[in-house]
Design a protein that fits this description.
It is a single chain. With about 130 residues, the chain is of the alpha+beta class. It has a single domain, classed as OB fold (Dihydrolipoamide Acetyltransferase, E2P), CATH 2.40.50. It is built from 2 helices and 5 strands. The chain has helices at about 1-25, 90-105; strands at about 35-45, 50-55, 60-65, 80-85, 115-125. A 5-stranded mixed beta barrel has the order 1-2-3-5-4. Strand 2 (about 50-55) and strand 3 form a beta hairpin.
Length: about 130
């Protein structure tokens, strides 16, 4: 009977250590997946109302709703550097990770990042988008 309990305890310890090791392998090398992003690109009006689209120089696209922190309307069709907070950061990062995995396995081509951003700072880089 003692032998069975020893085996059970050993299996529980091995399973616990394996789980701890697997969790420790979390990939933290991608520093761009934070909550705050800085993106340089072309700001355009998107649809009606207070919706804008920032197309980054890296091909990423960000939907932005105007707020009191920045004046987006006066920078339409200009190259800007924008800093903002990613909306629904956890869900956004999970979506981007899934796209990365699909691309890594060859299931899809790598698509540029797309998300929603709440602008907190805006700096004009150029008077036009070129």
């Amino acid at each position: 009977m003692k032998n069975k309990w020893t085996r059970l305890l050993l299996c529980v310890v091995v399973a616990g250590l394996t789980s701890a090791w697997a969790l420790a392998q979390d990939d933290t090398s991608n520093k761009s997946k934070g909550e705050v992003r800085s993106i340089t690109g072309c700001l355009t009006k998107s649809g009606s109302g207070n919706e804008y689209l920032l197309t980054g120089t890296d091909g990423s696209t960000w939907e932005i709703h105007e707020n009191n922190a920045v004046d987006l309307a006066s920078h339409v069709n200009q190259t800007v550097e924008m800093r903002g907070v990613v909306s629904n950061e956890k869900a956004h990062n999970m979506k981007e990770d899934a796209k990365d995995m699909a691309s890594d396995t060859g299931a899809t081509k790598r698509k540029a990042e797309h998300g929603h951003l709440k602008a907190t700072h805006l700096h004009k880089v150029s008077d036009s988008c070129q």
